[in-house]
Amino acid sequence: MLRALSLLLVLLLLTVPPPVISAEDGGLGDWSEKEIVVEMPLRLNVVFLGGGFAADESYLEEKLGEILPWYAPYIAYEGEYLGLNITEIDLNVMEAPRGMVEEYVRFVYENEGAFWEPEIALRRIERLEDMLNQYFMERLGVGLDLPVYWIDAWMMAKWLDEKGAEYLGIGPDEYTIYFILSALEIDGIVEYFVDTYSPETGTYFFTGGMSAYGGLDRLYFIDLTSVPLGKDRCDGEEGCKSPTPYYYPTLWEVDEMSEDDFYRLLATYISETIIYVFFRGYLWRPTYEANLYEYLLIIDATSGDRALEILEDFSVDYFDEAMNSLIPYSYSIRELDVIDVDDYPELREALFSTLTYEDDYAVIDCETVPRVVFNLPIIRRFENLKTVVTALFVLDSEVFVCRKNVVGRAFREGALAAISGYTLEYEGPTLTLYHEAAHVLGLRHPHDADPIPWAEDLVNWFYDWSATPMSYDPACTLRTMYEGIYFPRIDLDSMDIGVTIYLIKRTRQVIREALESLQNSGIEASNLPQEVRKVIDDVKLDLDMAAGEFVKYNYFNWAEFYGLGVQKASAFDYAFSAYQNSVFFSRMVEKVLATMIELRDLRVKLDEAARELEKLREMNQELEKELEGLRKTYEELLEKHSRLEEANKELKSKLDDLSSRLEEVKNDYQRVLEEKSALESEVDRLREELDRLSSTQSTMNLLIIVLAAALVVLSVLYVRASRRAKVLPPPPPPPS
What we know:
The chain is α/β, with parallel strands linked by helices. Among the domains are: 38-278, no CATH class; 291-441, Collagenase (Catalytic Domain), CATH 3.40.390. The protein is 50% helix and 15% strand. It contains 16 helices and 20 strands. The strands form six sheets. Strands 4-1-6-10-9 form a five-stranded mixed β-sheet, with helices on both faces. It has a five-stranded mixed β-sheet with strand order 13-12-16-19-18. Helix 1 (2-15) packs across helix 16, helix 8 (316-326) packs parallel to helix 12 and helix 14 (489-520) packs across helix 16.
C-alpha cells in the first residue's frame, strides 16, 4: 500500500506544478507544537457521610476556584506541562443517605481493632492515644474522655467504594472524595490504621493515627473528626505540610472556625487530593516503547562475595509481578545479573574512592557511581526498546544512596538502590527496587506536588497515607505488595495518562515533521492524493477520540485490552493507533521524497542529455559537410590507389630482382668475409715474421756497424802503414 500511495503522489507531482505551503494553509498550523494537547473538565463527587450535613455546592466551588482555578500536571525538573489540563472542576456535592450512614456505624463497631498482630498494634496505639489526649488538652483544654475506635483504612476504602455504588450510584470510573463526620454519629473518636506483613521478611508493619486514606480506586476519604497523628516531617518549614492537627485542623475545633475558614479547609482538602492523589505529576518526562527491557543488576561489593547469602530472602518474582502490573501494554523482557565489583576495576574504583563512611554506615556517591554503573559493558540498550536499569549494591556495612536514610535513587538512565540493615531485616529489598524502577518510568511520590499554580514546590506528607508503593509510609506501601496489587488504580491512572499524552504529543510531532519535509520540498498538503490525506484524517480522528475518552476518564480499558492495535476501547488505544498511522504517514512521506529526489535527478540528467543532443546535432551537420569532402577525397584516393597498385607491381618486380641480387651480394659478402678472415690470418703471420725479421735485421745492422767500425780502424792503420812502407808495383797479369 505504501508503494502504491507513493506512486500516486509521484504521478500527481508530475502533472501539477508544485505550490508553496504555509502554516496558514491548513497544513502545519493544525500540528503546531503545544504544551497542552488534551483539555477536559473534572467531574468530582464530594460525599458527606454523617451528621446529616452537605456543604453548599456553589460556595464550595467558589472557594475551590480561589485555590485551584485549573490544574495542569507538571513535568518536574523540566519546567514543562505534561500536556493534560483540567479546565474546570465541577463538584457534585452529595449527602450519604441515612441507610449508608447507619451501615457505616455498624462497620465501625464490628471492625474496630481488627489488627493482624493485636499485641504489637496495641503497644503502638498506647503512644498514639497519649498523643490524642495531648491534642485535646492543648487545643481544646479538656482531657480525652471518649473511646477511640481503630479502623483498618484499607477495609474502610474498599467499603466506601462498594457502598458508594450501592447507595449513591457512583460508578467505578468516577472520582470521589468522602468527607466523613464520624464523631457526629459515633460516641467516640475514629482513628484509622493500616497494618500488614512484609512478604519477604514476614515482619509486621503498623501505621496508626491516620485520618485519611485511598487510592485503591478513584476514591479518597478524609474523616474531618479524626485527629491526624502523623510525624511532623516539616518542622515548620514553609511550603511543607505534615499529617498533624497543626497543618490540618479538625472539626473538634469548629467553634474557633468561621464558615469561610471551614469551606476553605474543605476546598484545600479537595485541591490537594486532586493534585497529590488523583492527578499526580511525573518525576521525569514519560516515554513509551512497545517493548520494555527491565535489567536488574545486583552488585556484590562484600569482602567475601556474600551478596547472595545476604539476599537469601530476596525473590525476583515480586519485582516481575509488580512491573507486569504497571505497564500491560508493553512486551517486557526481564534479566537478572549478579556481578562481583572486583571484576570491574573502573566500577570498584568509582565506588570505593567516593564512598563516605560514618560510624556505622556508608553513603554511595550519586555523581561518579551512577555514571559508571549505567555505562557498564554488560548493560545492553536496544533501539526501539525502553531500557529500565535497576542496580542494587550489597556491601559489608549498612549503606545508603546519596545521603543517610535514602535506600534508593532514580536517575534518567536508571535507578540505584542499596541494602541497609532496615531494608534487609524489615521491608526486604524488592519494594525499593520496583519503587525506584517506577520512578524511572514516570511515577512520583504522592507527597510531591507540582509547582503550578503555586510559586514553589510543595511537599505534603499527609498524602503518603495512600495505597501506593510510591508512598514513604512502609505499612501503606507493603500492604499493596502483600495484597498482590502492587500498583493500585491511582498509579495505573498516572502511568496511563502519562504514556497516552506522550503518544499524542509524539504523534503530533511526527506528523508536523513530515509536513515540514513536504513544505520544504514545495508540496502543499491540500494537493496530496486522497489516499494520503485520508491517513492524516485518520490520525486526527483517533486523536479526537482519544481526547473524548479522556473526558470519560477512560485512559486505559483493562477489560477490553487484548493486545496492541487489536482494539480501540480507551484513550490509549486511540492514541496508539494515531501514533502508528503517523509513523506510517512519515515513512510514506520519506518514500515519496526519496522518489522525488530520484525524479529530480532524472530530470536534471534529462535536461543535460537534451543539451548534449543539440550539440550533437550541430556537430552532425558539420560532420556531413566534412563527409562530402571526404567522399571526393576518397575517389581521388581510389585513383591514386590504382596508380599506386601498378607502381607497386613494378616495384615488386624490381624488389624481386633486387632480392636476387641481394642474395648474390650476400654470398659474395660471405666469401669476402672468409677471404678477409684468411688475409687477416696471413697478415698476423706476416706481422710475426716481420717482427722476427726486424729482430734479425737489428742484429745484422749492429754487426755491420761493428764490422764497419773495424774496417775503418783497419783502413786507418793501413794508411799509416803504407806511408811508412814502399809501394810495390801491381803484379803481372796472369798468363793467357
